[in-house]
Amino acid sequence: MRTLPRREFLALGACAVGCAALGGCASTMTLPVTSDDGRIRVRLDELEGLSGSDGFVRLSPGGAAAPIYLLTLSDGSHAALSPICTHLGCTVDVAGQRLVCPCHGSTYARDGTVLRGPAERPLRRYRVTEATNGELVIHLEEGA
Ligand code: FES
What we know:
Blueprint: H1 6-21, E1 30-33, E2 35-36, E3 39-43, E4 56-61, E5 68-72, E6 78-81, E7 93-95, E8 98-100, E9 107-109, E10 114-116, E11 125-130, E12 135-143
Parallel strand pairs: 1-4
Antiparallel strand pairs: 2-3, 3-12, 4-5, 5-6, 6-11, 7-8, 8-9, 9-10, 11-12
């Protein structure tokens, strides 16, 4: 049996406490992706983390400064959001049905709309289309 060095043990403990406080993060996965002509294509059948109404996958586009959050909405459609808080630019966390900014508490719905300030503007949302071949296409140059 492998024993964890103290530093790893403390990091795991901090993660466990943080995840519990945020309502769980069991479905979170990060997927490296590439963009082609301003579009990111992902296969729905390869994104297990998107299943269910609290589905969430963090996409990591090569060369981009920030990830893109891909979330399942209550009607089964998907939203692709910038995780950059529109108040002062912190990165929001997904907490169940909401996205919460750890800096000043702004809270957003899963479609990016503001539920609670101080942020006044929604998260940037990219248009998402679903192709007949089971691909989701995220259009980086277009808003939803
Ligand atoms: Fe997000 Fe202030 S930066 S609430």
